[in-house]
Design goal:
By secondary structure, the chain is an alpha+beta fold. 21% of the residues lie in helices and 54% in strands.
Length: 84
C-alpha cells in the first residue's frame, strides 16, 4: 500500500508554525489538495512581506521572503512511500 507524506518546513528569521509538520494521506489527490490549500493560505499570510521568490508545482512549493532581519524559507512537499 502506498501512503503520501506531506511535509512542511520553515526556517529563517520569520519562522511560522510549519516547522516539521507532517501529515499522512492514503490518497494522493487528498495530499495534493492539502498541499495546495496550505500554499494558498501561506501565500496570503505573507502578502505584507516582500516575497523574494516562489515556486509551485504539482507536489512541491517553496517561498522565500526577505525582511530587514534576513531571509526566511517556507517549503512543502509530498513523498510517496510504500508500506506493508
Amino acid at each position: 500500500m502506498k501512503v503520501y507524506i506531506l511535509t512542511e518546513t520553515s526556517s529563517g528569521e520569520v519562522p511560522i508554525e510549519l516547522d516539521d509538520i507532517q501529515r499522512v494521506f492514503a490518497d494522493k489527490d487528498k495530499a495534493i489538495k492539502a498541499l495546495n490549500e496550505s500554499y494558498v493560505k501561506l501565500f496570503d499570510d505573507l502578502h505584507n512581506y516582500n516575497i523574494d521568490a516562489y515556486q509551485k508545482s504539482f507536489d512541491f512549493y517553496s517561498i522565500s521572503i526577505e525582511t530587514d532581519k534576513g531571509i526566511s524559507y517556507y517549503r512543502g512537499y509530498i513523498f510517496e512511500k510504500e508500506v506493508e
